[in-house]
Automatic annotation (TrEMBL):
This protein's name: Sulfotransferase domain-containing protein
InterPro entries attached to this UniProt entry: NST/OST, P-loop_NTPase, Sulfotransferase_dom
Record lineage: Bacteria, Pseudomonadati, Pseudomonadota, Alphaproteobacteria, Rhodobacterales
Gene3D superfamilies for the chain: P-loop containing nucleotide triphosphate hydrolases (3.40.50.300)
Superkingdom to which the source organism belongs: Bacteria
Annotated source species: Rhodovulum iodosum
Keyword terms, alphabetized: Glycoprotein, Transferase
Record domain Sulfotransferase: where: 10-190
A family per Pfam: Sulfotransfer_1
Amino acid sequence: MSAGADPAKPDFVVLGAMKCATSTVCKYLEEHPEVYMAPRCEPNYFSDDANYAKGPEWYARFFAPRQGEAICGEGSNDYAAGAMYPHSAERMARDLPEARLIFMVRHPLRRIVSAWVQNRVDMGDAVPPTLEAAVREMPARFVDQSLYWKNLSRYRALYPDAQIFIGFMEDLSRDSDAFFGRLCAFLGVEPYSVDAGLHVNPSAGKRVPAGLYTRLNSAGPVRLAKQVLPKGVTRAVKDRLLSRPAAEMRLPPEIEAELAEELRPDAQALLAHCGKPGDFWAL
């Protein structure tokens, strides 16, 4: 099947991992004149059991607006979360055996911090208020997704390496033109010039609800106040008084050392596979 032969199916999928510049890659592809990208959404078709049960007709709706672009695709970070969604790879290989896969990675410890910031901002008290608690209590969400080789191996067992592009966020940051040139060659489209400063959804500038926010949020009087005060007031109190800048977030040294020990063999395997030096990421 040639690229673009079936308008109801994507020709490529951006797998993740979360907080590894996947949003930036998807935005670039969304703006590319030869590419139709399911816009600003994560279908999570292969990861979410309920979505997958809706069937291929439901999935095809994400690509229905396509109007003659050479190729089309989608991006869903949950596809790279093997511990949380173990069936994604086998479902994708069964339904999209000829698809090209894009797997983004970055320094695994920095990804954990950035993912916690993003989840804490988005989900509030559904996420532990400290990084230490997050990696202890929710390892499938925060630690496992930094085991890139482990998660990628689920797909490598089902797809040939020629259909998998492994992109490093560090390479994208260093030379975006070269990075996107390689990506476009992989997808079989011409490179498309883009603002060198393109960076979607960065953690920098975000403010993270602090532990005090969590403690106050569980108090009855505070819950009552949130119901009667304007949302703008409660949001201002949260952002200005009960949150900290994302730039201040750090793993405690002892937790960082413990995680580095756990992540190092996986990281070394990926770096070796990609021809990167063993010290590309300092762990």
